[in-house]
Design goal:
Length: 333
């Protein structure tokens, strides 16, 4: 007989929803308080008696038990993840099965061989529970892919999803402490890893400096020397500025020249307010076209290249106008 745990839940939920509906419709309002009290007590006693009788019978129950790897051989690591759970068919007294259903025990896999009989592992661990027998386990056998364990040091990559108050932003990329960690795992898995990410930090409407502990991304195949890092971000208020830049030509052959319409580009940029005065008299940007762009164009309009030449790392290009310019080839006499 299958243990109808979900069915019991659905019936009880439907019953209470029906009582609430009737109360809203005014039917329960007509009953006296004493009748309601008697009804509720009788209902509770009936439910308890029903559970005592029915859950003393034998049932079958399918349940997913989490799988955990233990006793890893020294110098070895898994190259492929184990299944997260095993589907186990159990039979036994209803009370015992309810206990397992509410608190499923983990199946601990002793990683010493390339193949593990999962049925035997589950049976050994559940033998401690009296009056419960294991009927079936899926999968029955696990094949373990073990490789030599290697270690290396990689930088921490912060993953940040933030929004700022108007005109605010990070002055520079947030710093991480520690900025690198040691990771270890199977050789084939480690080869492609060049950095390690944090969990995503989500913050809204930021306008002040922040310091935040953030967990590192968890992995079932990779061991980490740290479980979390500290992020620090300096947040400042920005202002906008404009700079007019003459359009230049690069890599043109001798004997030819070119003119543009317009011949200047207006670049809009952002800079922290406290840096604004420092950049006003400096050359910030260059704008140019190349001979290769001219050769590949058939429209008469080309998008110029705009580069930052200022050594002030806090200047950031926002946009430039116009986005395309017309050009005219001039042949020298």
């Amino acid at each position: 007989m299958e243990l109808p745990v979900e069915e019991y839940k659905e019936k009880l939920t439907a019953f209470w929803e029906n009582i609430i509906r009737k109360s809203d419709e005014g039917e329960m309002a007509e009953m006296g308080r004493e009748r309601i009290a008697v009804f509720v007590v009788s209902l509770i006693l009936a439910i308890c008696l029903w559970f005592m009788v029915n859950l003393s019978m034998d049932y079958n129950l399918n349940i997913d038990l989490p799988i955990e790897a233990v006793s890893m051989p020294e110098g070895q690591a898994l190259a492929e993840e184990l299944p997260r759970s095993a589907t186990v068919s159990l039979s036994g007294e209803g009370w015992k099965l309810i206990s397992v259903y509410n608190n499923p025990p983990a199946v601990e896999i002793n990683v010493n061989e390339s193949e593990v009989n999962l049925y035997e592992q589950v049976q050994q661990q559940l033998n401690l529970l009296s009056n419960i027998s294991v009927q079936k386990v899926q999968p029955i056998v696990l094949t373990l892919d073990l490789e030599p364990r290697v270690s290396k040091k990689v930088p921490v990559q912060p993953v940040i999803d933030v929004s700022f108050d108007n005109q605010f932003g990070f002055k520079e990329t947030p710093s991480v402490e520690p900025d690198s960690i040691t990771i270890s795992g199977a050789e084939s898995v480690m080869g492609e890893i060049n950095s390690w990410p944090t969990d995503t930090l989500r913050v809204e409407n930021m306008s002040n400096n922040f310091t935040q502990q953030v967990s590192l991304k968890n992995s079932r195949l990779i061991s980490l020397s740290h479980s979390e890092v500290q992020l620090y971000g300096e947040i400042v208020q920005f202002t906008e500025g404009e700079s007019k830049v003459d359009l230049d030509t690069r890599n043109f052959p001798s004997g030819r020249s070119i003119s543009y319409s317009p011949s200047t580009i207006t670049v809009k940029y952002r800079v922290p307010i406290d840096e604004y005065a420092n950049v006003q008299d400096n050359e910030l940007f260059e704008a140019y076209l190349t001979y290769q762009q001219i050769l590949e164009d058939s429209t008469g309009y080309i998008r110029p290249n705009v580069e930052q030449v200022s050594d002030n790392e806090y200047v950031r290009i926002r946009s430039f106008q116009p986005e395309e310019v017309a050009y005219f080839m001039v042949l020298d006499d």
